[in-house]
Every structure is written in structure tokens, then in C-alpha cells.
Amino acid sequence: MLPTPSSISASLLTRLARRTFYTWNIPTTTPRVILSDGSTLIHRHNNYNSNNNKTPASSSTSTTATSDLEARLPPRLRPYRPRSVLTAEQIAELKSLRSEDPDTWTVVQLARKFDVAPTFVMRVAPPPKERVEVVKALERKRFEGLSIGKKMRAVDRIRRKATW
């Protein structure tokens, strides 16, 4: 049995009227501001401490400041795993492995072996010039085998990336 319009209170009618397709799952207690153009600005509350814009008074101890900042931030998306710091001997071994056989010892393989970031491997041990030429030749050959449409899309993609 549906309620008659006279049995529905005025506050319920206004609450029902404000709940649209886009706001059906937002609680009715959430603050809303009706703007001059008729649109509704919905202010959602933060799930974490509201003092997150304030910096700590003194950052004399870095561990306390870091833990204080982390306590005020939302939870991490991924767990933080600190990477190892390489010694000079390990860096020399990394460079020698990369220069001896870059096909076997790729950036990813070396990063896993030494527990470092791949960008660190690329910066410390760039590939030999012969390897760069081989990779460029393979890419050129692959590009030449593409259809005209795919070539045009690839060139357009390169142009778009250049304007970022």
C-alpha cells in the first residue's frame, strides 16, 4: 500500500526530492549547498583526521614526524617496501652483468636480483650501444610491417605525447 501525499511529512518530501540518480547513495545528513545556477554542491566529510593540513610544530625527530604525518593521512594503497642500498662492489657487478649479456640480464632481472628499482638499474647501467642499435632496428622493422592505419595512429600517439 502506497502512502498518500497527505500522510507524507514535508521534511520527507524535501529529502526525497533531493535524492537523484547521482546522489542516491549519499546520506541525507551530508551538507549540501544549492548554487546560483541550481546545481548542488555536496561536501563529503573526510574519513581521516581533519587536521591533515597542519604541519608538525617541530620536525626535530624525523621518525616522530613521519609517524605523525602517516597517522593523519589515509591508508596506503600499497604496502611500502624499502629497497636495499647497493655497495660499490654490487654496483660494479650490476654493470658487468648488464654489459656482458644484456639479453639475459634485462633491467627487470637485474632489479629483482639486487632488490632495487628498475629506474636505478637504467640509470647506473645503461645497455651497450650495440644493444640499443639492435632494439631500434627491431622496432623499425616492426613499424614497417604495420598497416597504414596503424602507422598513422602510432604517429598521432607520438605527437600527442609530445604535447603533454
Q: Low-confidence parts lasting 5 or more residues at pLDDT below 50?
A: 54-59
Structural classification: mainly alpha
Overall pLDDT: 81
The helicity comes to: 40-55%
Order of helices and strands: HEEHHHHHH
Strand order of the largest sheet: 1-2
Overall 3D shape: flat
Strand proportion, as a percent range, falls in under 5%
Count up the helices: 7
Number of strands: 2
GO cellular component, one term: mitochondrial large ribosomal subunit
Biased composition (Low complexity): 47-67
Pfam family, one: MRP-L20
GO molecular function, one term: structural constituent of ribosome
Give a nutshell description of this structure.
The protein has 164 residues and is mainly α. It is 48% helix and 4% strand. It has a two-stranded antiparallel sheet.
What does this structure look like?
The chain is mainly alpha-helical and 164 residues long. Among the domains are: 33 residues, no CATH class; 75 residues, no CATH class. Helices cover 48% and strands 4% of the residues. A hairpin with a 5-residue loop joins strand 1 and strand 2. Helix 4 packs across helix 5. About 4% of the residues have low confidence.
Reconstruct the topology from this structure.
Layout: H1 10-18, E1 32-34, E2 40-42, H2 62-72, H3 88-100, H4 107-114, H5 118-124, H6 129-144, H7 148-162
Antiparallel strand pairs: 1-2
Helix pairs in contact: 4-5
Region (Disordered): 45-69
InterPro entries: Ribosomal_mL58 (IPR024388)
GO cellular component, one term: mitochondrial large ribosomal subunit
